[in-house]
């Protein structure tokens, strides 16, 4: 303890025990068992095993990082110890479950998942004695591996992590990769790479080598290539930009054909969330108004579409989708405007709580007996027709994908235009310092009303399309969770960043739909992900240019101060 | 009668039982440079906030160019031609320097969100002109080439000057500077003093400043008003203020006034 950055026994113990606790916790809530169903590399590695192996690896890495100034020897030693300590709690758990079982105590009445299956997973189905020895051995080894990872030069470490992440990512999505390969290259293509819903070992190795290789090459040459690009003439740059935008456009248009019906459905849902996040981003990202009731706009859009187009008994007018679409958007904007009026003077937390209330009020209104004669109460509105364009009916996931894509592009265009305008600057100034913004001559009342109103438009649009896509709407579709999802997308993607919204929606909405196992633990993973993001990457997955600049200059300042 | 751009008549501002500004009469001649000084807590910044609409005054009147300011909001007052800086710099930290100045131009911009979405020619022209003018102001405050930096990453002195540029962007008739040289070293302070004078001459505006540095106050002001416990205790040209007994007493305490050798200048 005489060195300032030496790792004390106490924190070493903390790191190890926390890692062990992570395994015990995920085991007791059943995650390890459920995730073991999903193979990553056929016959070698399952997602459940990753959940057992990752904590000691991270513990070893953390222990080594905290003791990096004590020399390589201590680093490795501490890392191994951290791995060993991480094994303590899981071992106790296994012994305890077995002992209670022997004593005839029914622990499963309290912990449903404390079963034989969990013991099997933790002991690699080798029986208690050899299995536990293996567990301890593995975890110590993984701790050491984590330490070694820390000891490696950063470039190599990043390369290894990148390759591994790709293998795990592709392995996780095996089912869908097979589907995509089948659509692209016929039936045989999938079988050569995948087996029983997981990667075959050799292709896994190839993926690792290729992705890690590309990453390593970019590490070495990326700066050069970027510099050469920066030096190239305006003409070349423009050609490059146009080509990449063109390629992206072609890819987006071909996507339903490439990925098939099920994934198109997922993409359409992701698109609806992108649409909502683009809208909420105006209020939260640009104007700094924390709106926790965004679902209100979604619900208004959906119910207006439902009520005005439905051919069922509740249909008011049986109008055409395209006529009602702008009406839904206007209705959502009007709601946004009216709900903004009472909260104009509120700031920060108070605003968040008030808007949270509005979100619940709209759901309760939809459920209420009072409005039931018009919007069906709990039975909802049924028989909402699909949209037509000429003789073409938009009724499949693929066609809805195109409709939503078009809507996203319109909102994207509007967002970008607003972002770089006087209005956008007014909002940003208000976000930064509301009083100073007022002193600059900005009418903050008007600016807030405008932010809430325009932000609502996109929610209404998403709601209207949603109603028509589903063909029926029910109050429980408009829960608080939607507001939370949309807000999480913005935070995870990167506050105020438009590409970040797409990445965030893919990660938070797309992935859970692809991985059934994840959706059971969706809220837990959201929470964990948000905490990890705040700690490790507060700027988001794809931060806006300004935020990136900000963080870079912070890093530069820190470097200059050293 | 002299041409006064601002006339405050019997202004009172109370916070609960505390009277922060107590029956202050005050005038600023057009194109003058006038200072308000006083010990900490004398009510200087409160008086600023009353003029700029941050606080609503409880009694009295404030007239700007003949129009009453009472009951108007900050943005309305800015639009009438009063701009200010803040004692503790309040730039829009996560916006670039140029964006900060462009926000300052608010009061004479007219483009709307619809114009922005549809990219109307009027909006484009305004955006372009606004950028050009912002760049001119940036150069004027010696921040050439720093337009794309985030305001919060600028060095302290640059931030002070950027705040002044942002205030100037509203094309004010009256500029209020709240301790413009706070935290500056003597060289920067001297530069700022020259800068304020240059600003008045080039932009033909009236300047009112709150300042603690007596060299700045005495060197630059044409008129000085002294506040103590919310009350005006003296006003006049610098020379008169320096020898005013009540001022010396307010700054140095009773008894000090008796020893005539004490200099206020330090």
Describe this structure in words.
- The complex is a heterodimer of chains A (562) and B (266).
- Chain A has helices spanning 9-28, 31-35, 47-66, 71-103, 116-122, 128-151, 154-172, 174-185, 187-193, 201-231, 234-286, 295-309, 321-340, 348-367, 372-375, 397-419, 422-432, 434-439, 444-470, 480-493, 498-514, 516-520, 522-536, 545-561; strands at residues 39-41, 45-46, 194-195, 198-199, 388-389, 392-393.
- By secondary structure, chain A is an all-alpha fold.
- Chain A folds into three domains: 1-151; 155-231, no CATH class; 255-480, no CATH class.
- In chain A, the strands form three sheets. A two-stranded antiparallel sheet of chain A has the order 1-2. Chain A has a two-stranded antiparallel sheet with strand order 3-4. Chain A has a two-stranded antiparallel ribbon with strand order 5-6.
- The radius of gyration of chain A is 27 Å and the shape is globular.
- The mean pLDDT of chain A is 88.
- Chain B is an alpha/beta fold and 266 residues long.
- Chain B contains ten helices and ten strands.
- Chain B has helices spanning 44-51, 74-80, 97-104, 113-118, 121-140, 156-168, 186-203, 214-220, 238-242, 245-252; strands at residues 4-15, 18-29, 33-37, 59-64, 67-68, 82-84, 174-178, 206-210, 223-228, 231-236.
- The A-B interface holds A 414, 417-418, 420-426, 428-429, 432-433, 435-444, 450, 454, 546-547, 549-550, 553, 557 and B 52, 54, 73-75, 78-79, 83-84, 86, 90-96, 99, 102-104, 106-107, 109, 111-113, 116-117, 119, 123, 126-127, 130, 149-150, 152-153, 166, 170.
Instruction: Characterize the biggest β-sheet of chain A.
Output: 2 strands, antiparallel
Order of adjacent strands in the largest pleated sheet of chain A: 1-2
- Report on the biggest sheet of chain B: 6 strands, mixed
Q: Report low-confidence residues of chain B grouped into runs of 5 or more.
A: 260-266
- Tell me, briefly, the overall form of chain B: globular
What class do helices, strands and sheet pairing of chain A give? mainly alpha
Largest interface: A-B, 32 and 40 residues
Radius of gyration of chain B: 20 Å
Helix/strand/pairing category of chain B: alpha/beta
**If you compute it from the alpha carbons, what radius of gyration of chain A comes out, rounded to the nearest whole angstrom?**
27 Å
Q: Helical region count of chain B?
A: 10
In percent, how helical is the residue content of chain B? 25-40%
SSE order of chain B, one letter for each helix or strand: EEEHEEHEHHHHEHEHEEHH
* Beta-strand content bin of chain A: under 5%
Distance between the termini of chain B: 36 Å
Beginning-to-end CA distance, first to last residue of chain A: 23 Å
Oligomer: heterodimer
Tell me what portion of residues of chain B adopts beta-strand conformation. 15-25%
Spell out the helices and strands of chain A N to C: HHEEHHHHHHHEEHHHHHHEEHHHHHHHHH
Instruction: Tell me the total number of β-strands of chain A.
Output: 6
